[in-house]
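Appendix B, Record 12. Input sequence as logged:
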Amino acid sequence: MLTFLRRLLLTSATLVAVSSPAFAAGKPSPVLFTSLAHAAPELNPQALKGALNAMQCAVNNGARPSRHLAIIDYSQPSTARRLWIFDLSRQKLVLRDLVAHGSNSGENFATQFSNREGSYQSSLGLFRTQESYEGTHGYSLRMDGLEPGFNDLARDRAIVIHAADYVNPLWSKRQGRIGRSQGCPAVRPQVAKQVIDKLKDGQFMFSWYPDQRWLKSSPYLNCQPQQVASILSSHAS
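Logged structural output:
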């Protein structure tokens, strides 16, 4: 009986892994979009759709599927909880919280974005998280930008996820916004460990804003297989 139950559990786990919309080849499953949209009704549907399309394009062209997906909706103010982290295999929202933008991206609303070192602006597009480490801000997470011209200098710019005391809703009462970073998606110290542990080691993060130049040029949003495969190959080497 015990052997039978073990086989049943293994079979069920295999079916979930194979049939999960997040791991399927082709186009993003409408079921996945519907499930995540239901779990995060305040997330801009265009941001969610863009994130799923970008992630699916990456997976279709050589990227390893991830268990978690983080989305930052920069069309929302800094005072809103505009960071969402989803468990893709369970199709569940596991965290929603505040996240900072760069000091030169805007005041309460981020409207300017850059890939340039020293710009102190946030970057848009698809990222792949990498290793966690202990740095100036404590426990932090490095990531690689996957979009040439928009975020591919993230590692050179030291754009990382880290804790920051200024990511605090009390700031909004005094200044009308939370504090700002030098371009990093900084989070509250109270949730930093949870955020980093969920996202480290090869998860996808997607930063969205209705920037027309990026929307028209992104190789992931417009799924250009040869360019995407080349980008992913360079990051794997």
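Residues 1-23 have pLDDT under 50 and may be disordered.
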